Amino acid sequence: MLILMTGDATREDIQRVKDKIAALGFIAHEIVGASRVAVAITGNKTKVNPDLFSMMHGVEEAVPVTKPYKLVGRAAKPENSEIDVDGETIGGQELAIIAGPCSVENWDQLIATAEVVKDAGARFLRGGAFKPRTSPYAFQGIKEEGLALLREAKLKTGLKVITEAKDVETLPAVAEVADVIQIGARNMQNFSLLEAVGDLRKPVMLKRGISATIEELLMSAEYILARGNMNVILCERGIRTFEPYTRNTLDLNAIPVIKKLSHLPIIVDPSHGIGMWDGVSAMALAGIAAGADGLMIEVHPNPEAALSDGAQSLRPDRFRELMQRVRAVAAAVDRTVAVEIA
Amino acid sequence: MLILMTGDATREDIQRVKDKIAALGFIAHEIVGASRVAVAITGNKTKVNPDLFSMMHGVEEAVPVTKPYKLVGRAAKPENSEIDVDGETIGGQELAIIAGPCSVENWDQLIATAEVVKDAGARFLRGGAFKPRTSPYAFQGIKEEGLALLREAKLKTGLKVITEAKDVETLPAVAEVADVIQIGARNMQNFSLLEAVGDLRKPVMLKRGISATIEELLMSAEYILARGNMNVILCERGIRTFEPYTRNTLDLNAIPVIKKLSHLPIIVDPSHGIGMWDGVSAMALAGIAAGADGLMIEVHPNPEAALSDGAQSLRPDRFRELMQRVRAVAAAVDRTVAVEIA
Amino acid sequence: MLILMTGDATREDIQRVKDKIAALGFIAHEIVGASRVAVAITGNKTKVNPDLFSMMHGVEEAVPVTKPYKLVGRAAKPENSEIDVDGETIGGQELAIIAGPCSVENWDQLIATAEVVKDAGARFLRGGAFKPRTSPYAFQGIKEEGLALLREAKLKTGLKVITEAKDVETLPAVAEVADVIQIGARNMQNFSLLEAVGDLRKPVMLKRGISATIEELLMSAEYILARGNMNVILCERGIRTFEPYTRNTLDLNAIPVIKKLSHLPIIVDPSHGIGMWDGVSAMALAGIAAGADGLMIEVHPNPEAALSDGAQSLRPDRFRELMQRVRAVAAAVDRTVAVEIA
Amino acid sequence: MLILMTGDATREDIQRVKDKIAALGFIAHEIVGASRVAVAITGNKTKVNPDLFSMMHGVEEAVPVTKPYKLVGRAAKPENSEIDVDGETIGGQELAIIAGPCSVENWDQLIATAEVVKDAGARFLRGGAFKPRTSPYAFQGIKEEGLALLREAKLKTGLKVITEAKDVETLPAVAEVADVIQIGARNMQNFSLLEAVGDLRKPVMLKRGISATIEELLMSAEYILARGNMNVILCERGIRTFEPYTRNTLDLNAIPVIKKLSHLPIIVDPSHGIGMWDGVSAMALAGIAAGADGLMIEVHPNPEAALSDGAQSLRPDRFRELMQRVRAVAAAVDRTVAVEIA
Predict the structure, then answer these.
(1) Which H or E run contains D3?
(2) C44 and C104 together in one domain
(3) Is A244 at the interface with chain C, CB within 8 A?
(4) Whole-angstrom distance, CA of residue B167 vs CA of residue C255
(5) A250 contacts D163 by C-beta, under 8 angstroms
(6) Long-range residue pairs from A172-175, CB within 8 A, at least 24 positions apart, any chain
(7) Cβ of C168 under 8 Å from any chain B Cβ?
(8) Which residues of chain D neighbour B251 with C-beta distances below 8 Å?
């Protein structure tokens, strides 16, 4: 159930609605939109009678929600969410460009990449410190040491840092350094981890699982919003299909669908999505044309020597080239990108 | 085996190579590129010894081909193929815009749509006369009557006509009217039909089957080229995945992959690809940004009343709007679109 | 719409119903069950009013059918269909065992295999004469020569012959020799071919397309029944999934689902389904346990030298072993298998 | 690298090999087979030179392992693993029958179900206390209370208890009650949880993720074995495909494949696999015929009122019927099932 308040509802009107919800034993979630407030009810096992609310002062309408998610839906908040990341915005007119190595390997690799991507117009630095890997024998990241290097790179460059939290145990350490906490595709339905980041107020980037439907992605986001953290950014990174040529099948259809169903920003990760460096630029441009709010791209100064995902990482010069083309496509769809530093 | 001729090889050099291939009991296919000629050998059951050709006059190199296709591959022809369609080109710098109704229903519907799409910049009119349908009880097209209407619309508007051939029996009638013969997704591995269009010299648009790999699509194209018809245009129209929200999953990853593997032009069909009208524009723009050579879009003057595929058809005004945005994105990736007629 | 007749309806009652359907411009299909007759109406574009029939003499009920298929559904015919194949039955208590080489290669290979499989208890000989192949350069069967050998093997062994018709052109030649005409997976939605076999009265084995849903398979069968050929046998032969280890994913879930939805017999093809000889026996036994009406298995006297599908073919001795285990599992689910010839 | 010891190698021989591995800075895993011991080396970043070991006393061969897993592979242990569960065995000649409700709801429901399944021949009781659910608003289990009821049911019936651990936090509580700790499909790549159960010595049932390849399942099992817990049981429970009729597609092809690749036991869960109660029996019998080591089946005294998964749960009487048929099929493939208690 969503209680849509009128445009001129007062704080008192809103509070009375929330009190009534609490009195019924349910949970009230206040969702602040541009022109009005909505209050979502969760925690009810059965349908709530709309008449309990529709006659209250300041209430425009009490809307039963038949979709399995509420807080992430457009019904709860018609306008796009813009997520503030320590002064930078994800979901606004300017595209969020996130770039950096798959894994943080050492200071030289990290800072060289950070400076290159910053100069080309990125405002966010990605880099894995804790790396979930399919094989127990594969490189699993340099962990705490990687976090320390990310913190240093942030101080030095001013870039905001995105890095993955792989479990509840290491989440506090990650949350201390990260400006945006990434939840990886394999953890999209690790509900304990979703609840833990839901209890924080830091922005969270939630990646779609390789075989998750769009609805399941939205339901996992709902886990985070339901705990009070509204700062969620979705990320399409490729799904598993029968096609063997590409590592995954980047599903750009998800962009217009998510834009229709949800107010949350959506980022495209073409590096994992297609999984071959010479397809990354085409898919990045396509993602922007499809309406994505930004890109997450793997860049490595020396892909052949990368400890992970070298085959899909761009060299610095190719990333710069790509950014110039991103600017042109962004303009064609009325979006902007931060300027290049000559 | 591919015999790559030198840039200054003479007609006689080429003929001697072809004669030798014939003498060995194999088939020679001459592939004329911008700067040189290649001769492909097919029909050999076992490997051909390169030494048989490499010392011949005018031969630069005899290259064994390990890929399961030859004539469609970049190795056989490094530069992009531009397919001439009765004066219009598919695969050149100008994007090919193909639009029209899913099915030809009657003269008023067809001509109204044809004029609208022409004014907006389309140069090709699509419209199904013979419609393969999953159910034997569904509308199967108005058949010969539809062909007659397409011929009339072509005469009246000057648009080139693309329509589907659904079997060998009705192919001659279709081929008489169509400027481009469409082979539908369900027929992508109807090898008898592929061989029949391979024996013609008319351009053929081959749609990817809903669960065909990119390699299988290329192999089906190879069936056509191997019979001597080099005028093949590929079409990505969505694959079948686990995602239920969209009708299909338009696989734009196929665009950069096909551009890498093959010289054939590739068109994107966002209407079938995503299968919902309010996602068509996003996917059309994404297709262009990804590097496609054109678009095939379903337009209907009155989608609610369409006899097939109404839910994914654009109204004329939305198509015009889309074309303006296509022009902007095309410019951003150095492509052009025919001008709008005011 | 299905018109269910009462158990004591007379020929005249049935004829009056059929005449009324014809008078309305629709097509009547009489479906003879064990205890009563049903008459299905097809050809109607809009709903038929049940009152037109429900008051007629001998009519028990006029049932609107909301499923997209009618004649293949359990509603049309509650009891299992038993297909007579020149004296042998498919769909009865005795399992139909179909075995033989993927392709007919020569007389020695064919007759050696035929005799081995007959001795082990098979009553049907499979063998491809016309072979649809993904590559135009792959072995496409020995065609008419293969048909001639199949005819000879049939005369010599008494086995019934199953072989594939790959197009409308070669169907007459195939239909002359085959006791059961196979429609391959790639042709499951070749509707012209379905209509052509629908016009015959010979049994047809329709293989599920590699990415066809169960409903689509039933709709394709409906094409055949709607033309009057009720002798259709379905075949599950593996679907395309993300799993790379097996050639396909044999979908045994389809067996109980099809048994619930349709009265048609269903055969399992574990050879194509799993695509590796050392998995064929496990999947064959599993298919019988799941309720399939028979098996189609590739057997080759010398799999390493087979011109197609050697990797999934069983040697004669392994086939004999398998048949002994099939007998044991069949008994456990109240089915029988023809006896072994010592 | 695997060091295969000779049949008559002494404890000293084995210890010397393990000491040398430790001296190189790697980890030695002793794998005790029926007739000889193998020692696997993990923790090496680069290839280990076989010559370092092949000349040592008691070493038969030093085998480089190219597969991405080692300890779970047949190369490491040719004979089947039999997992001891507090006196019962999983992986032996007798099939392991696991049955019970999807979720533990209350004492009456649990004990009624437990007694019914025990009488029918089950030796293991399943029941979820902590339930990971796609929606944050769905029933998530009765948690600690459920564990307490499971403990009581175990004392009362003597059945061994299998229940799911959904995160590292609640693992200790689950491990105290469970005889087998279940890792659910969504957590198959929750590597922190895998490592945590790898540090225990209790049997673990690892369910295949809905889009996990067989190799990925084996790699996840390798995480557990690599920490020293060899007591792993795999479980096939259905994969995600394009087919909409069934909830999942139970992939029985995985049974012969896993039996070929690994020595670990494999259980089939037809309830989740096909997701409709009237298909469960067919798939259960098929699983046994395919070679599975047991079944996990949802049984509920009143499926319509179940708090989760009612649509796929069997009533007690249908479960009893199924067990009788399981006994017959088991006998046909040389397996046994515990007797029914009249």
Answers:
(1) strand D2-5
(2) no
(3) yes
(4) 31
(5) no
(6) A173/A144, A173/A147, A174/A129, A174/A130, A174/A147, A175/A200, A175/A202
(7) yes
(8) none
What is the ipTM score, two decimals?
Answer: 0.90
| Helices and strands (DSSP H and E) totals, chain D | 11, 14
Per-residue model confidence as pLDDT tens digits over B253-309: 999 999 999 999 999 999 999 999 999 999 999 999 999 999 999 999 988 888 888
| pLDDT tens digits, one per residue of A32-49 | 877 788 888 887 777 788
C-beta of residue C147 within 8 angstroms of C-beta of residue C129: yes
Question: Do C241 and D241 contact (CB within 8 A), yes or no?
Answer: yes
Domain containing residue C125: 83-332
Considering only CB atoms, B222 lies closest to which of C136, C190, C219, namely C136
- CB of A279 within 8 Å of any CB in chain B? yes
CA distance B189 to B286: 28
In this complex, which of A211, A259, A329 lies closest to B242 when CB atoms are compared? Answer: A211
Helix, coil or strand: residue D64: coil
The CATH code of the domain that includes D131 is 3.20.20.70
Chain D residues close to A226, C-beta within 8 Å: 136-137
Q: Which of B214, B216, B251, B253 to mutate to test the interface with A (most CBs of A within 10 A)?
A: B253
- A228 touches D at CB < 8 Å: no
Q: What would the pLDDT profile of D285-335 be if each residue is shown by its tens digit?
A: 999 999 999 999 999 998 888 888 888 999 999 999 999 999 999 999 999
Is B70 contained in some domain? no
Question: In terms of domains, do C127 and C20 share one?
Answer: no
Residues of B with Cβ-Cβ distance to C220 under 8 angstroms: 134
**Contact status, residue B159 vs residue B149, Cβ threshold 8 Å:** no
What CATH number did the domain enclosing A14 receive? 3.30.70.1140
Q: What whole-number distance in Å separates Cα of residue D271 and Cα of residue D127?
A: 13
Reported residue count of chain D is 342
Chains within contact range of chain B (3+ C-beta pairs < 8 Å): A, C, D
**What span, in angstroms and rounded, lies between the C-alpha atoms of A204 and A181?**
5
**Reported pTM:** 0.90
Q: Which residues contact D19 (CB under 8 A, 6 or more apart)?
A: none
**Residue A130 binned pLDDT confidence (cut-offs 50, 70, 90):** very high
Task: Clarify whether residues C87 and C215 are in a common domain.
Answer: yes
Say whether both D57 and D88 belong to one domain.
Answer: no
Of B211, B240, B242, the CB nearest to D240: B242
Which of D246, D285, D291 is opposite residue C253, by nearest beta carbon? Answer: D246
Q: What is the pLDDT of residue B61?
A: 85
Give the CA distances from residue D113 to residues A77, B339, C77, D321, in Å, rounded to whole numbers and listed in that order.
46, 73, 38, 15
Please determine, for residue A74, whether its predicted confidence score (pLDDT) is greater than 80. Answer: yes
Q: How far is B310 from chain C (nearest CA, A)?
A: 17
Residues B142 and B253 in one domain: yes
B243 has a chain D CB within 8 A of its CB: no
- pLDDT tens by residue, B135-176: 888 888 999 999 999 999 999 999 999 999 999 999 999 999
Task: Count Cβ atoms within 10 A of the Cβ of residue C37 and give its class: 0-12 exposed, 13-18 middle, 19 or more buried.
Answer: buried
Residues C29 and C102 in one domain: no
Residue A76 lies in a domain: no
Q: Are A240 and C244 a contacting pair at CB < 8 A?
A: no
Strands A2-5 and A59-63: antiparallel
* C38 belongs to a structural domain: yes
**C337 lies in a domain?**
no
What is the distance between the alpha carbons of residues B304 and B315, in angstroms, rounded to a whole number?
Answer: 10
Q: What is the DSSP letter of A168?
A: T
